Amino acid sequence: MAGFGNINEMSKDELAGKSYEALLYLMNSKKKRKPEKKSESEDLPKHKEKKNKVIEKLDEPDTNEEENETNEENELIDALVREDLDNLDEKENETSQDPFNRHFDSENMQAISEAISCVKAMNLSQSSEETKLGISQIFTPDTEEKVSYNCIPKSDNVSDLGLKQRILEAYKSQKPSGHLTTMQMEIAKHMFNYQDVFFTNMNIKSHKLISSLYALHALNHVFKTRDRILKNSARLSQNPELEFRDQGYTRPKVLVLLPTRNSCYEFINTLISYSGADQVANRNRFEDDFSIEKEVISEKKPEDFRYLFAGNTDDMFRIGIKFTRKTVKLFSQFYNSDIIVASPLGLRLAIGNKGDKKRDLDFLSSIEVSIIDQADSLYMQNWEHIEAIFDEINSLPKEAHDCDFSRVRPWYLDQQAKYMRQTVLFSQYNALDINSFFSHYMLNVAGKIKFRTLNRGILNQLGYKIKQTYVRVSSDSIIKLPDARFSYFVNSVLPQLVKSPQGGILVYVPSYFDFVRIRNHMDDEAISYSAISEYSSTSDLTRARTLFQQGKTKIILYTERAHHFRRFDIRGVKAVVMYAPPTNPQYYVELARMPMRSITEGKLDQDAAKCRILFSKYDSISLEGIVGFQRVPNMCHGRHEVFEFV
Prior knowledge:
Layout: H1 4-8, H2 12-28, H3 63-82, H4 88-91, H5 99-104, H6 109-120, E1 124-131, E2 134-141, H7 165-174, H8 182-191, E3 196-199, H9 204-238, E4 254-257, H10 261-275, E5 279-281, H11 283-290, H12 303-308, E6 318-323, E7 327-330, E8 339-342, H13 344-351, E9 369-372, H14 375-392, H15 410-413, E10 422-426, H16 432-441, E11 448-452, E12 467-472, H17 481-499, E13 505-509, H18 512-524, E14 529-532, H19 538-549, E15 555-559, H20 560-566, E16 575-578, H21 585-592, H22 595-600, E17 610-615, H23 620-627, H24 632-637, E18 642-645
Parallel strand pairs: 3-10, 3-11, 4-8, 4-9, 5-7, 9-10, 12-17, 13-15, 13-16, 14-15, 16-17
Antiparallel strand pairs: 1-2, 2-11, 6-7, 6-8, 12-18
C-alpha cells in the first residue's frame, strides 16, 4: 500500500470493507502533504474571467497566518490542560442531553445503522401535528428504538437553544430581550435538534428572522465542533492512550447556499455580529467585493422583487470563513474554513464537471450542516446546480489533507455521512423540483419535518373581476405530460388565438424548453408573434414590447424566468393564456392584472378580459398556491375538466 492513491483504485465496496486498515496506514504515513492546488477557478470559461478575479484569490495560503493560528490552538490546548477537564463540558452546558452530542457523538452505532437502513429503504413513519405555522409533517426512520431529539428549546428565550456562551452574549448585546417569535420557536424545535427542516412559506418579514436563526445554528455547530476537538486534544496530551472520534476528513462543517452577493453580504455580517470576535480579517476586501451602493429600484416593482434584487445581485461567488477564539477570517482557503458560503453557480464551477482532471471537491466531504436559503430564487437560477452539488457532498475524499484518521467518526469511515448530515431549506413557495429535493436529498436519520401551509389561494387578490378558465390536460404519466400539453396547446388553443379578432394575447410559458418548442412551431406555421425570454437582449425586449403594444403582433410569448428577473407590466395585454400554472402564486396575480391597464385606458371592456390556464394533476403543488388547497383534489382528480372562476 502506497498512500491514498492506491486506496482510490479500490471500489467503494472494497474500501468500505477495508477502510479501517487502509486509513490506519494513512494515519501513520510520514509523507508530506502535496502542494496546495491552484485557484479553484483557474479552469473557468474565459467569459467568466473578469467576474472571477476576486474568487481566484480564495485558495492562496498564508503560511505565516496559518502558523500563528496553529500556535494559538496549541496555547489553547495548554490552557485547557491546566484546567479541570472533567468540568469543562458542564461549564458550556454540553451535557449528554445536548442535541449536538446526541446526534454526532452517539455511541449506539447499532441504532444508527438500523436508522440508516430504514432511510435507504424509505421506511419512514409519518406523523402530523397542527401548529401556528400550519400542518407539520414529521418523517422519522421506522426503527424499534426511537431516539428523541426534542430537548430544546424549552421556552421562547434564546438562552434555551443550547448556544455557546460567547454566541449568547453577542446575541443578547444586540437583542437584550432574547425572546424568539412563534415562528422561530417552531423552526428551532427541529433545526437545533439536528433534524432536517423544509419550510416553504417564507416572506420578506420572516426571512430576516429565519436568517438570524440559522446564523446562530451554524455558528453554534462550528464552535461546538472546534471546542470539542481542542478539549479532546488536551485530554490526549495528558493520556495518549485515550481514543476520541470527534471529526471528519476535512475542516469545513457548514455549507450555506445563497442566491446573490448581497444576500451573502448580509448573512456574513450577521455571522460576524453573533461570533463575539474581536477582529475580522480581510474586512475591507469583503466590503469592496460584496457591497455596492444600492440602486433605487422603482416603487412600481413588487416588494419581493425590490428585496431580492437590492444591492449586489451577482450570482457567482464563493467564500470561506474561518473562526478562531478572537478572529473571523474571511476569504480563508476552503480546507482551512469552518463555513463555506456560496451561490450554486459559484460552487458548481469550483467543483468542476465529472471527468475534469483538476476536479476538487474534498472540501465538501465532511459537511455536517447544509443550509439552502431563498430556494425560490435559486430555483429561478438553475436548480440543477443544487442537485449536482448534493450529489457530491459527503463523498469519500481523494486525498488525506493532513487528516488524523484515528479521530474520524465511524460513520464517515463507513461512507454514511450523508445520513448524518442536517439539511435545512427555506423558500417563499414550494415547487415540484424543490419538493423532490426534500424526498431524495434530505436523508437525516434524526428525521425531517415539512411545514405545510394550508394555502387558501390568491384568487381574491386580483382587485377586479376577470373570467378565469382552468382546463385540465390529461396524461398517463409525468414523463408524457410535456407532449400532452404541447399537443393540446397547438391543436386546441393556438388555432383559436390566431383566428381571434382580438389581439393583445399574452402567452405565459413557465419552462424555457416549452417556450422554445412553441416558438419553433409558430415559426414553422408562419404565425406572427413577439417573444420575451430570460435570454432576450435589451434591444429585443424593447422591440417585442413595442410591436405588441402597437398591435403589430397579436401574440407575445413570455417566460417565467423573464418575469422573475424583469417583472414587466406589459402594456397592450387584453387576454392571458398560461401554458401551465406559475410556480410563484404571486406571479399569477401580476399576470392576471395585466389586462387592467387596457381596461383603464378604455381599450378593453372589463367583461371581455379573460385568463385561461392549462394544468394537469401533476401541477397540484403550484395550483394549490393559486386556487387554494380545498379546490385542488376536485380539480386534479374530479370528473370535470374545465373550471371557471370570476
